[in-house]
């Protein structure tokens, strides 16, 4: 739940971060307006170096913004961070667990140190699917299990916002799937999750909404189905593709080699063909996946430049 009047759990406005070094000024985040709605899993997507970690670090008070404003649960941060941080769980860097203790022992120690009830350990272990392996030593865990334990650690304080920075980095497909299932479960349980990632397929499967950034700037934001559906291509099947291609070109449509036409006016397409006496035997919408949208939007933004 959120106290924010706009219903957003995370809001930034004109957020900017500059790094100064001997090599000059590097703008890591520029004029970023982020709005993460309450509930569900929100993807925070961008190529390497696009400013995701820097944004998250600013939200958590780990880095100072050069300009702009930020709110968590409607409260301005970093000023009011102490008032809201108890409701925020975050996995930004690899947490330090003791390798010789079991996952459960690590969690129990942590729960004690933050004053969380011991009963939360059971709930956290269960939520991340570590039940049955929780009494094994941490050092025997796979990378995926270690990452799930890191998420379990953030759940000890029963957060309503969970911020995960590239939680599947370095995991194999099975590990990625485990984390994905865990995150999906958390979203379904009513936790708002900000999931930073550059793995598109995973985000598309788990996120309800997403923000795409490139070179620290917002490129697109909205519900995943809207982002993906913003552009729909149609596969056109006709008995005479050569004639159809000519008619469609004259009507102002661009037709790909595979007879795909990108348009939001399929009725105009059928009308143009029908008027020329060409009747369709197929008109299939082909939705792009998030990866295609992402690659298109972020083309040329992979290399962070010095300003
Ligand atoms: N402490 C720092 N000093 C100087 N430059 C920095 C610092 N931290 C980040 N940067 C630069 O800011 C830009 C954004 O980096 P950031 O780590 O936020 O990107 P990211 O989207 O999280 O990337 P990745 O997916 O690789 O983790 C990069 O160009 C990076 O080199």
TrEMBL record:
PANTHER family: ABC TRANSPORTER, ATP-BINDING PROTEIN (PTHR43335:SF4). PROSITE patterns: ABC_TRANSPORTER_1, ABC_TRANSPORTER_2. One of its GO terms (molecular function) is ATP binding. It comes from the Bacteria. It comes from Nocardioides agri. Coiled coil: none annotated. Belongs to the ABC transporter superfamily. Residues 10-240 form the ABC transporter domain. Keywords: ATP-binding, Nucleotide-binding, Transport. Transmembrane segments: none annotated. SUPFAM superfamilies: P-loop containing nucleoside triphosphate hydrolases. This is ATP-binding cassette domain-containing protein. Pfam families: ABC_tran (PF00005).
